[in-house]
Amino acid sequence: MKIPRAARSAIVEAVARIAEQRGVERVHVALAWLLGQDPVVSPIIGATKTSHIDGALGALDLKLTAEELEELGAPYVPHRVMGALAPQETTVPKDAQQR
User: Per-residue pLDDT tens for 17-59?
Assistant: First the structure.
């Protein structure tokens, strides 16, 4: 199951808007949103240069407001884990399915 195009666009637009308002890079907003989730998730950063890691570390200094977290999370559509490492039985919590 893929995230619908409209939801992806809404997420990208929200990240861009918050990044501009805060004067930070989009990657900082995206990673700060991931770090603000409960339970905490561990983002995997695909860095090919040390500067990519240095840039990503900027997210640790960015604390998003509750309103910003809501704005970023509202268009997100939970979906099953996919790929070779996905558990055999994955489920989306019922409360997440009703968004």
Answer: 999 999 999 999 999 998 888 776 677 777 888 888 888 888 8
Structural Rg of the chain based on CA atoms: 15
DSSP for 23-73, please give it.
Answer: TS-HHHHHHHHHHTSSSPP-PPP--SSHHHHHHHHGGGG----HHHHHHHH
Number of other residues whose CB lies within 10 A of the CB of residue 59: 23
Q: How far apart are CA 73 and CA 95, in angstroms?
A: 14
**Contact status, residue 58 vs residue 15, Cβ threshold 8 Å:** no
Residue whose entry in the numeric block shows the structure tokens 């890079």? 25
Residue holding tokens 């998003």?
Answer: 64
Q: Looking at this protein, which amino acid is placed at residue 98?
A: Q
Q: Which residues contact 1 (CB under 8 A, 6 or more apart)?
A: 79, 80, 82
Q: For the beta carbon of residue 64, count every other beta carbon within 10 angstroms.
A: 19
